[in-house]
Amino acid sequence: MDEKSVTINDIQDILTELLDIMDISYKNISITDVPFLASKRITVESEESGILIGTKGEHLFALQNIIKRVVEARLAPGEECEPYMIDVNDYNLARINAIKKRAVDAAGRVRMFRHDVELEPMSSYERLIVHAVLASERDIATVSNGEGAHRRITVTMR
Counting Cβ atoms within 10 Å, is residue 102 exposed (0-12), middle (13-18) or buried (19+)? Predict the structure, then answer.
């Protein structure tokens, strides 16, 4: 194993160090599985969640990007890290569950009315969730269309 290899525990340590540098207090940092996305979730429990999450998750997104850059700098050339996401007080988990519900509801409408359902524009991560949630549905297909911030998913019958 290369000495520059980065594990999920290393990422947890990077997050802990960054929170300490930012002088953000936290109760706990834990690692759990996100099976349908085949990734890990590193969750911070903090009373200062507003600072860490920001408006519409902007600070949390920035925190994730900073940690990603630190991890990338520690990886050997060509090496990849296990997929992970950073969460604060289950903010991302709630967001994922809301996206999953919209995806399942859209699939239900497609089945019931036999018409495609176009979802609102989403980030690439949100689209990944929709594709993953509906991937096992034999009669439902998902297609991304549009450009940039207007990219969205259409849910259709196969």
Answer: buried
Q: Is residue 111 part of a domain?
A: yes
Strands (E), 46-151: 84-88, 117-118, 140-145
Token readout for 93 is: 């988990």
Which pTM does this prediction carry?
0.82
Q: Are residues 107 and 75 in the same domain?
A: no
How far is 74 from 77, CA to CA, in rounded Å? Answer: 9
pLDDT-derived band at 44 (thresholds 50, 70, 90) equals very high
Residues 16 and 58 in one domain: yes
| Residue 154: its H or E element | strand 152-157
Q: Where among 38, 70, 89 does a domain terminate?
A: 89
